Structure to design on (1011 residues):
């Protein structure tokens, strides 16, 4: 078919070759597609300036991150695609090569692109380029989500109805809500349709024709539009490799800046997080190979997709900061890097990018050419989970070397030459180290204290050396690293003649280095592959990379590499001296004092704050020069202030003290013992010396204490800096366990049994008297010990008993704080947000039930009243099925028994039988006249899952064992008549109440009566 030529927007010039690398545009006269100089004719009378000319920089959109996929030699990388940029962003995959632009409506309106938004249009995506190979299958375009959608019954019903309606408008619309990623050929959430009938505008420019300029509305020939709307298959379009294809798509229903669905009749704006959670959205075009189309009709297996383009869009919280006690480190405020240079050579991969505010200082080694062409608001961030090893930067000078060091080309370069050498020719590593293909279990020793010798903490603080912005610095213990290198490799930290003793440690034992500074020296290895990695925060992932990198360095025994590390650690910077050396002295005020401290937000993450003490309150301000209040603590609620012994701290070289209140203990880091003693003296003057000893020495108002203990906002809005918690809150964070090696040895089962017993006591206490106050504090301290619990030595039976007790303790704890859920609409907030930090994992009540206790059993249906989490906990989950667990996991529903036992391993079978009998004797109803039996719905599902292809008759025979004698005989008679028995399912109650806890059975107690 002869392709219709474009009749408008024809410019003078020479067609370039798309097979050449696409350079970025240094001036307005360079074509974004061909790389040649040409004059661009406006395609619209409203557009009075050339596309390359920009009288003003693009607006900074802080709430949206856009990244464009490139695949070079099988290596995937994402580069920044700045919304409303004045230049197109180049990309290349194994299927397509070209450029793309994202143009969004913003407030105030961007004058450069006003012509796009005369109506209700919210954004437009333009893609232009050439196919590198002919498609053999079908090409689809649409949208994907990066994670499986977790939908409740209402949102799933709405989504299905919307997709069914859209299917009546769009031909061959295909969609999925996603499948578990553990399946080999799983689908990720998507809604796609064939490429040519779906795009709003499609322009085909043959050889010798100039394609339309990006950044202007595409003019499409009406006759060709009518023709392509009739295409049923991709082959109908006669795709060729010499023509240039220009595509555009827009919508009025998706506001990317506010991350909402808008302009939907009879519906208010809906946040996209309702449907996709914290997942990113990807606007994609991809080919499904012909073999997959024929083998799996209607399916889009993720691993078989050949991407034509992939524009990833994700929401960014412009106000995300690290607060104490509520916040971890902001993903967008951590390491800030300068942007890439304007010109990139062939084969240089571009890494992920994210924006930062204008005015960023240039790095010391940024080339002048890069500095002059740096795009406003652009920075570079490496992919943390890439299977490629991030190697040392190329030692070549100039722009290409800067790219390889800062953008990620080093990883690709290492794939071509796995033996990088330092300038002197010594191999830094003998071979390429890649991430294990198998998932790793938790290394309890490394989680507990093994990481302290490599990188014990990160600190968010103001960097006064550059622009006084807050950055995340990683603490490196010089003395520990020197001793480790000497013991492991029998080398010196400093280059010089051999010696039989390690070099003398420098006077200052600690260093503060940014992620970028460490990255320039070390192989930043990917973290060990674990299921919890996706839930870790960026600062924690980076800290773990540093730890793994030093561990690997110790195994290599390479003198040149050790010398490089010493160059990183020496000499001490001005920031090291200011924070760890001199410290910052207290400043005495008229009614108190103030000074700079670091406050703990998690076991390994701290933030620098200005601590202000007065006679009425303790106030934490965001920074030394900030007036933003992070936390206020009334001085009347302070119970004790005491130093922390050095052996219990994560960094013994500095000093720590704690301020204890009923709800929480606040931990502070200072440079020296002298500075710590000054703070203790100040507290002593303001509070009285008795407060510095025991938390219960002074007389306190019981009513005020009760208010503090039960105050929801004060107690249970803790967010650890280690984790991405979204709306979850950690309930066992009164104390932070930094180094469990110095805790008294405790039996995990006995600890959890005691926690459940105390929770039951607190629910039965009618008045908040002094004894219950002590129990509250003891209870909160005990559940804090769960943070570093090690379950690996426990047997399956012991772990099952412990987890059942923990589940019931969490339910009672949630009921004490929030009250029992009154209806099913409150269940999601209750069971999916209340969390414990347990065995180095963050676990919600719902995850403990569905992903740990019932991990090997059948899943609830998609119409479950609560969203069933999909996370995996391989080190904690039970590996065996037992349908009795369905009757022993008590969520507090009124349809469940009003009591639970304290489970113990030695009597677990008898207790499971007892609770199953107690549940079934109340729930099972038999009707011999109508030949019907009513049983709990869950019992049928999980019995079938446990027993294979079991029938309803098999189910009833098994359940008869747990019924009363008269019901057992009646059911036996009904079964003996060899007639069909109708099995009905009893609906559960979604109203909840508190349950009682009974002591465990004695040695002579048994299960239910047996026939």
């Amino acid at each position: 078919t002869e392709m219709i030529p474009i009749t408008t927007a024809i410019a003078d010039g020479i067609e370039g070759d798309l097979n050449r690398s696409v350079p970025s545009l240094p001036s307005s006269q360079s074509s974004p597609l061909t790389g040649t100089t040409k004059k661009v004719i406006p395609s619209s009378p409203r557009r009075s300036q050339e596309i390359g000319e920009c009288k003003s920089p693009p607006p900074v959109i802080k709430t949206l991150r856009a990244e464009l996929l490139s695949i070079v030699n099988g290596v995937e990388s994402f580069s920044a695609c700045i919304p409303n940029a004045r230049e197109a962003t180049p990309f290349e995959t194994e299927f397509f090569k070209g450029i793309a632009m994202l143009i969004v409506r913003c407030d105030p309106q961007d004058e450069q692109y006003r012509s796009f938004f005369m109506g209700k249009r919210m954004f437009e995506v333009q893609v232009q380029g050439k196919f590198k190979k002919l498609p053999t299958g079908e090409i689809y375009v649409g949208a994907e989500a990066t994670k499986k959608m977790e939908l409740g019954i209402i949102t799933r019903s709405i989504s299905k109805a919307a997709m069914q309606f859209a299917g009546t408008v769009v031909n061959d619309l295909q969609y999925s809500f996603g499948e578990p990623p553990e399946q080999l050929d799983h689908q990720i959430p998507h809604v796609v349709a064939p490429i040519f009938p779906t795009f709003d505008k499609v322009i085909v420019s043959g050889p010798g024709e100039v394609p339309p300029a990006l950044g202007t509305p595409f003019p499409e020939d009406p006759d060709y539009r009518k023709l392509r709307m009739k295409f049923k298959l991709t082959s109908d379009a006669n795709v060729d490799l010499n023509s240039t294809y220009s595509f555009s798509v827009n919508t009025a229903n998706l506001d990317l800046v506010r991350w909402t669905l808008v302009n939907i009749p009879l519906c208010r704006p809906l946040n996209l997080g309702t449907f996709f959670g914290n997942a990113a959205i990807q606007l994609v075009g991809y080919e499904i190979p012909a073999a997959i189309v024929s083998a799996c009709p209607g399916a889009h297996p993720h691993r078989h997709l050949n991407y034509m383009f992939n524009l990833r869009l994700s929401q960014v919280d412009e106000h995300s900061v690290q607060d104490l006690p509520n916040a971890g480190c902001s993903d967008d405020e951590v390491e800030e890097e300068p942007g890439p240079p304007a010109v990139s050579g062939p084969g240089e991969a571009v890494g992920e990018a994210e924006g930062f505010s204008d005015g960023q200082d240039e790095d010391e080694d940024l080339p002048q050419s890069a500095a002059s062409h740096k795009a406003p608001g652009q920075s570079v961030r490496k992919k943390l989970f890439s299977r490629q090893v991030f190697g040392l930067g190329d030692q070549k000078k100039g722009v290409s070397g800067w790219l390889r060091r800062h953008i990620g080309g080093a990883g690709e370069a290492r794939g071509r030459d796995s033996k990088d050498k330092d300038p002197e020719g010594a191999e830094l590593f003998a071979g390429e180290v890649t991430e294990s293909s198998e998932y790793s279990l938790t290394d309890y020793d490394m989680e507990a204290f093994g990481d302290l010798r490599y990188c014990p903490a990160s600190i968010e603080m103001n960097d006064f050396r550059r622009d006084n912005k807050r950055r995340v610095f990683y603490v490196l213990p010089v003395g520990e690293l020197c001793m480790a290198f000497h013991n492991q490799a029998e080398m010196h930290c400093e280059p010089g003649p051999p010696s039989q003793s390690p070099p003398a440690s420098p006077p200052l034992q600690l260093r503060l280095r940014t992620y970028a500074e460490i990255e320039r020296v070390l192989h930043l290895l990917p973290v060990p592959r674990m299921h919890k990695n996706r839930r870790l925060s960026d600062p924690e992932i980076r800290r773990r990379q540093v730890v793994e990198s030093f561990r690997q360095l110790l195994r290599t025994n390479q003198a040149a590499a050790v010398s490089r590390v010493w160059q990183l650690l020496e000499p001490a910077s001005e920031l090291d001296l200011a924070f760890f050396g001199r410290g910052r002295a207290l400043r005495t005020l008229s009614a108190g004092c103030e000074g700079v401290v670091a406050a703990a937000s998690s076991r390994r993450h701290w933030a620098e704050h200005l601590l202000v003490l007065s006679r009425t309150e303790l106030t934490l301000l965001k920074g030394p020069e900030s007036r933003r209040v992070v936390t206020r603590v009334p001085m009347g609620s302070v119970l004790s202030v005491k130093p922390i012994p050095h052996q219990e701290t994560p960094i013994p070289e500095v000093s720590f003290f704690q301020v204890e209140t009923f709800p929480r203990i606040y931990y502070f880091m200072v440079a020296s013992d002298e500075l710590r003693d000054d703070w203790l003296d100040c507290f002593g003057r303001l509070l009285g010396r008795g407060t510095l000893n025991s938390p219960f020495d002074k007389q306190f108002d019981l009513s005020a204490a009760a208010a503090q203990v039960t105050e929801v906002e004060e107690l249970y809005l803790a967010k650890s800096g280690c984790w991405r918690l979204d709306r979850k809150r950690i309930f066992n964070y009164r104390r932070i366990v930094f180094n469990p090696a110095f805790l008294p040895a405790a039996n995990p089962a006995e600890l959890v049994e005691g926690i459940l017993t105390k929770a039951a006591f607190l629910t039965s206490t009618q008045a908040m008297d002094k004894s219950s106050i002590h129990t509250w504090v003891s209870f909160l301290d005990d559940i804090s010990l769960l943070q570093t619990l090690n379950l690996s030595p426990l047997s399956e039976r012991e772990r099952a008993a412990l987890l059942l007790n923990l589940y019931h303790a969490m339910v009672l704890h949630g009921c004490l704080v929030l009250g029992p859920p009154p209806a099913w609409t409150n269940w999601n907030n209750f069971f999916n947000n209340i969390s414990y930090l347990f065995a180095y994992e963050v676990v919600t009540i719902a995850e403990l039930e569905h992903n740990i206790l019932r991990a090997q059993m059948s899943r609830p249906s998609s119409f479950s009243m609560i969203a069933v989490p999909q996370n995996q906990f391989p080190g904690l989950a039970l590996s065996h099925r037992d349908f009795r667990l369905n009757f022993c996991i008590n969520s507090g529903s009124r349809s469940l028994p009003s009591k639970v036992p304290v489970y113990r391993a030695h009597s677990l079978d008898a207790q499971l039988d007892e609770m199953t009998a107690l549940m079934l004797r109340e729930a099972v109803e038999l009707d011999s006249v109508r030949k019907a039996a009513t049983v709990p719905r869950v019992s049928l599902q999980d019995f079938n899952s446990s027993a294979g292809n079991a029938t309803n008759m098999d189910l009833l025979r098994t359940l008869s064992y747990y019924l009363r004698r008269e019901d057992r005989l009646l059911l036996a008679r009904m079964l003996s008549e060899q007639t069909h028995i109708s099995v009905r399912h009893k609906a559960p109650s979604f109203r909840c109440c508190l349950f009682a806890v009974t002591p465990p059975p004695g040695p002579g107690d048994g299960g239910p009566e047996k026939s």
In short: The longest helix spans residues 796-818.
